[in-house]
Amino acid sequence: MAQINVSDLTFGYEGSFDNVFENVSFSVDTDWRLGFIGRNGKGKTTFLNLLLGKYEYSGSISANVIFDYFPYKLYPGDLEKTADELMENWKSGVMSWRVLCELPKLSLDAELLYRPFSTLSFGERTKVMLAVLFSGENDFLLIDEPTNHLDMASREIIKHYLAEKKGFILVSHDRDLLDACVDHVLVLNRATIEVQKGNFSTWWENKQKADSFAKAENEKHLKEIGKLQASADRAARWADKNEGTKIGFDPVKEHDRFMGTRAFIGAKTKKMQSRVKSFETRISREIEEKEGLLRDIEEPADLKLMPLSHYKKRLVECRDLSLRYNGSEKPVFEGLSFELSQGDIVLLKGENGSGKSSLIKAILQKAGYETGTVPKDSICAGTGPDTGGDAKKQCPEITGALNTAPNLIISYINQDTSYLKGRLSEHAKRNNLDYTLLLSLLRQLDMERVQFEKNMEDFSEGQKKKVLIASSLLTSAHLYIWDEPLNYIDVFSRMQIESLIARYRPTMLIVEHDVRFGEKLATKEIILGSSQKRSTEYNKINRSGQ
User: Fold this and answer.
1) What is the tens place of the pLDDT at every residue in 485-496?
2) Could you give the CA distance from residue 523 to residue 521 in angstroms, rounded to a whole number?
3) Which pLDDT belongs to residue 105?
4) Nearest CA among 1, 24, 34, 3 for reference residue 141
5) Is 44 left (phi over 0), alpha (psi -120 to 50) or beta?
6) Boundary residue ending a domain (203, 234, 261)
7) Does 134 lie in the same domain as 31?
């Protein structure tokens, strides 16, 4: 067992106002399964790149292991090659037989290694890369968000696969995955970095206790400071008043005074002034002990939502619905029937390629996606006027019945963020959003003000997602349709958004693979199946009391 020792690490990007890390020190063992937790933009991926030696820094990072990073980078032309051809570029000296041994653990057939990479699904590509990643010896592996965009089944496979491995850092915002796979956590707090034994839930329980203790200590210190300050003020006023009586007196009214009393008064005043200094010293000590108590406290702001009420109870209705693209004989799915009524929070589930996003596009197309800012003919290409392109080519053909309530206003989040470019002010103007409110909401989602001066293409993926979520929350709508909104979003913001939805109970249709999110909020599930007949199931879940 070896250790990775980080000592006095300081790093900041050129031109940045603040350092990402400053005088950071900690140690981790290389046989740990280490979960890496922190808010978006705190430097998780940056730290992985520092371990890989991609940036210059001050301080030291010492390790007697070779680092390897997931996901492997794909270059132009790589999609036409097979994984068997690519793996040597990804991991020098990798043995094919080792990769073949890993594939069954990920529920993959060996033939996938010999197909063009472009023919593999996103989930298959992820699993193949993980098989290559874990095919070395004595490597310490850096795994950066392996489950984004993966369906529930693929997430379960990867969860069980990683739970049997060791010697890695896992960056993930999926609480279920972290609980299943890690035995230690490395946490980027607001002001400090800590290493702790246990999984996410263990750390979160400890953090809540520590935060409660820190708040209680802070209250205690504040009360003590107040008492000491009041005592010091009283003593100072008495000393000042008494000092003023040393010179001059009325012998008729103050017959017990004489010239020798002056020395007595001066000594008493000096003693009182000494007491004032003692109070001030104690106040300074209390303030010093109070400082830093709340620096790592996570207190997410309460977000607000302005859902609209529609005069129709039923907003979306499907009867024996089938979808296909460009006249294809094979439908994306068929025979789907369900209703979405006001107050429903519907979780749309199914494996990758089962038609979740296609169903969303069909609903948007049918409703005309009326928000006042989005042309009816652009709904299938993305979230709004930012997307551009010929949207009609991507709209699915509908057979069966799909009806939406008249004049239905929808707020939509697409899973794609690549179209977000330019300044936030331009994005607000294009989408008729109040720019000041947009910035305020992004601050509540813990985006640093320094980010507001950057172009959106320079944001992290998590920060881009927050722009889309904030934009949707600022849009009053009858129905909120969110397609994988939590990809790349940190766990604190996820819980913040969960609290928002639980409080306002807007009508929603959501594609989201975060198990905890669905368990807490969904009132219904639509499951798009994958049998030979592309059958679909519709399950209504009784969640009374939630």
Assistant:
1) 988 888 888 989
2) 7
3) 94
4) 34
5) alpha
6) 203
7) yes
From residue 444, alpha-carbon distances to 146, 414, 467, 500 in Å are: 27, 22, 12, 12
Quote the CA–CA distance of 87 and 26 in Å, as a whole number: 33
Residue pointed to by tokens 């049997």: 164
Q: How far is it, in rounded angstroms, from Cα 37 to Cα 185?
A: 7
Structural domain of 237? 209-290
Instruction: Locate 337 and state its tokens.
Output: 């029937």
Q: How far apart are CA 286 and CA 281, in angstroms?
A: 9
3-class DSSP state of 200? helix
φ and ψ of 478, to 5 deg: -80, -35
CA distances in angstroms from 43 to 46, 185, 236, 479, listed in the order given? 5, 15, 50, 35
- Return d(Cα 170, Cα 184) in angstroms, integer: 10
Evaluate whether 70 touches 130 at the Cβ level (below 8 Å).
yes
Give DSSP secondary structure letters for 40-86. Answer: TTSSHHHHHHHHTT-S--EEEEE-SSEEEEESPP--TTGGGSBHHHH
Judgement on whether residues 536 and 451 belong to the same structural domain of the protein: yes
3-state SS class at 504: helix
Q: How far apart are CA 369 and CA 384, in angstroms?
A: 9
Tokens of 312: 């129709």
CA-nearest of 367, 352, 316, 358 to 334 is 358
Q: Return the CA Rg of the chain.
A: 31
> How many domains are there within the chain?
3
CA distance 451 to 223: 37
Q: What is the CATH number of the domain that holds 470?
A: 3.40.50.300
Among candidate residues 169, 203, 237, the one where a domain is terminated = 203
CB contact at 8 A, 21 and 192: no
Q: What predicted TM-score, i.e. pTM, was given to this entire model?
A: 0.74
The count of other CB atoms within 10 Å of the CB of residue 489 is: 22
Per-residue pLDDT tens for 409-467? 999 998 888 889 999 999 999 989 999 999 999 999 988 888 898 899 988 888 999 99
3-state class of 181 per DSSP? helix
